[in-house]
Amino acid sequence: MKFSPDARPERWLGSLALAVISLISLGNVITRYVSGGSLAFTEEFSVFLLVVLTFAGASVALRRNGHIRIGLLERHLPAGPRRALILFQGLCGATVLGLITWYGAKLTWQEYQWESLSPGLGLPQWWYLLWLPLLSATMLVRLAQQILDRWRGRLDDEP
């Protein structure tokens, strides 16, 4: 049986974000063509959805071992040092994602407390920021899964 890692919730979220971005952009183009003006909310929502799409896609890539890395050293190391390198790579990635999650959550909480509003539509800013710590925490989980699979030899160093 071939092992096939998956990140279905992130794939659905990324697909939905891309579909909504496409619909918003199409609606804006049609509105601009017909009326000469544009829809006010399109840029704010499109930027927000693009961030969601980016983090969801990065999470899928982590789970599928699709991120770019240099595997030359990894391929030429014996099993013991190779496993140590995999662990080191995982710890470095977990540190970065942990910091993004922590500071993203802190920023989201501050924006909630300050009752900051978005500049375009006047919506609570934390609605947009909440996705940063949630999706970076999801990436942290996917990273742990990927490192564990690589550690066990279920994934090669090349996707």
UniProtKB/TrEMBL annotation:
Q: GO molecular function terms here?
A: transmembrane transporter activity
Q: Which GO terms describe its cellular component?
A: plasma membrane
> Which biological process, per GO, is one annotated for this protein?
C4-dicarboxylate transport
Q: How does it sit in the membrane?
A: Multi-pass membrane protein
Q: Which InterPro entries does the UniProt entry name for this protein?
A: DctQ, TRAP_DctQ
Q: What is its main location?
A: membrane
Instruction: Report the subcellular localization.
Output: Cell inner membrane
Residues covered by the Tripartite ATP-independent periplasmic transporters DctQ component domain: 22-152
Tell me the domain of life: Bacteria
Keywords, A to Z?
Cell inner membrane, Cell membrane, Membrane, Transmembrane, Transmembrane helix, Transport
TM region positions: 12-33, 45-63, 84-105, 125-144
Q: How does it assemble?
A: The complex comprises the extracytoplasmic solute receptor protein and the two transmembrane proteins.
The family annotation for this protein states:
Belongs to the TRAP transporter small permease family.
- What does the function comment of this entry state? Part of the tripartite ATP-independent periplasmic (TRAP) transport system.
Stored PANTHER family: 2,3-DIKETO-L-GULONATE TRAP TRANSPORTER SMALL PERMEASE PROTEIN YIAM, TRAP TRANSPORTER SMALL PERMEASE PROTEIN
What is the protein's name according to its record? TRAP transporter small permease protein
Species of the source: Billgrantia tianxiuensis
